[in-house]
Amino acid sequence: MAFNLLIVRGPASAGQSAIDAWPAELRAAIPGITVNVATSEGEAMEMIGEADAAFGDIRPELLARGEKLRWIACPQAGPPAGYYHGELVDSDVVVTNTREIYNDHISNHIMSFVLSFARGLHVYVQQQMRGDWAPGYEIVNLPDATAIIVGVGGIGAETARLCSEFGMNVLGIDPRVTDPPQGVAELHNSEALGELLPRADFVIATAPETPATQGMFNADLFGRMNPGAHFINIGRGATVILDDLVDALTSGKIRGAALDVFQVEPLPSNHALWSMPNVIITPHCAGAGPYLDDRRLELFIDNCTRFNEGQTLLNVVDKANWF
């Protein structure tokens, strides 16, 4: 028997315009399904009482009215802090996310950082703007380099594969993965990170924001890194204490950093990181690329079909740990 689905549509600026076509696609895939779209919180409050499942940001006041709710589809792989509020964590409602759809785009972004640091492109681009012909950057030979990837889920695993294709020695850190993904020479649990850091030429953070990862990259961890190391973060901004990173860069504790995510976004225009020559900044765009709307819809229809048929859902979240 088909179910009642509520789609809580976010603002157009959140890239949700493609969702307008979802109801027709869902009705074609699942005959008998009831699909309602709420374009405001008020509409969502009126509709959620009849919903068996919902897509979107289901705040505590909405969840309280969702008496029939059994499944929530989170629109992101790692939503903003507060999405997994206490009422949701304590409820029996199953939550899924969109992890895996960004793997290729984000891992390619990471490799652009790695290659820039390896060959000095970040330095030479700045020299180009000044008309300054000054070769001599000390390259990092990737077949002689070691990368530590913190978080070897979908994105981290694909990054490990790409790093290994360039000949790099890859060490993986993950609290849940038990079998080394392709390209990972050594797999360790999270407690081993501090001991492993001195071995790394590149420390690549793909970890989600969780209660355990908030502020994990701090003065202590930066102080344990190899002075020639480069730090890359495309996971979540909340995992890195930026003041500690700035101190590590200015004091020479690490050689450089590349960041796509930040504690505060947008990064304030007067922040010290903007003017540091050994830093690469991109504006939270690592996940950008083609086919994302198609992948998100394909995943959602698959899960809706599974839900309708009483099958196990894909990408179920450990709500207490937010991923």
If you had to describe this structure to a student in words, what would you say it looks like?
The chain is an alpha/beta fold and 323 residues long. It folds into 2 domains: 4-100 and 289-321, 3-Layer(aba) Sandwich (Rossmann fold); 103-281, Rossmann fold, CATH 3.40.50.720. It contains 11 helices and 12 strands. It has helices at residues 22-29, 41-47, 60-65, 86-90, 103-119, 121-130, 154-165, 193-196, 219-224, 242-250, 292-308, and strands spanning 4-8, 34-38, 53-55, 71-73, 94-96, 146-150, 169-173, 186-188, 202-205, 230-233, 256-259, 279-281. The strands form 2 sheets. It has a 7-stranded parallel beta sheet with strand order 8-7-6-9-10-11-12, covered by helices on one side. The chain has a 5-stranded parallel beta sheet with strand order 2-1-3-4-5. Strand 6, helix 7 (154-165) and strand 7 form a beta-alpha-beta unit. Helix 1 crosses helix 11 (292-308). It starts with a strand and ends in a 15-residue tail after the last helix. The relative contact order is 0.13. The mean pLDDT is 96.
